[in-house]
Amino acid sequence: AAMRGELDLAARLAREALAAATEAQQPDAPAFFAGQDYVIHLHRHALASMIDEVRWVIEEFGEVHAFRAGLALALVENGRADESRVHYERLLEIVPTLRKDLNYVLTVSITAACSSRLGDTGGAGLLFGHLEPYRARYVDIGTGFYGAVEHYLGLLESTLGRHDAGHESIR
């Protein structure tokens, strides 16, 4: 539903899935719901309301780098650049050593969006190198569709001053 832009339906389905998973006593159901809720808020351009939920998931379920990236982006989107930068810089330190698992492209992509919002050219260059091999793919971890990798590369290209290339990628 979210891929089709039907965000109200996606939100309803996510709540229904949470209820079913909770009833089935799935211990990680709240974390999966938070991920689904986050992507819906991302597409609605309403990440500010996600800050407390993402902090809770990090505290409750431990360090999942994708959630740390999500927190950094939500903070910068809420005008809290200094607080965002603390999480963002931590992510830049670990990106080169991240295991290339299900969350890798998501973590780098969301960190790339944060880099763009912060206007950090140094970080943008680093992230571009890690994300470029995935240019033809989508950021989709099964529970949430975040869009084309090319979109995030376009944000980085624009941050690096390559506006024509960035515009072409973002299209």
Tally of helical segments: 9
N to C succession of SSEs: HHHHHHHEEHH
Distance between the termini: 22 Å
Sheet having the most strands: 2 strands, antiparallel
Write down the overall mean pLDDT: 91
Low-confidence stretches: none
Overall body shape: globular
Helix content: 55-70%
Radius of gyration: 16 Å
Structural class: mainly alpha
Strand arrangement, major sheet: 1-2
Strand content: under 5%
How many β strands by DSSP?
2
Please give a structural write-up.
The chain has 171 residues and is mainly alpha-helical. Helix content is 67%, strand content 4%. Strands 1-2 form a two-stranded antiparallel ribbon. A hairpin with a 4-residue loop joins strand 1 and strand 2 (145-148). Helix 1 packs antiparallel against helix 2 and helix 2 packs antiparallel against helix 3. The chain is globular and about 50 Å long. The two termini are 22 Å apart. The mean pLDDT is 91.
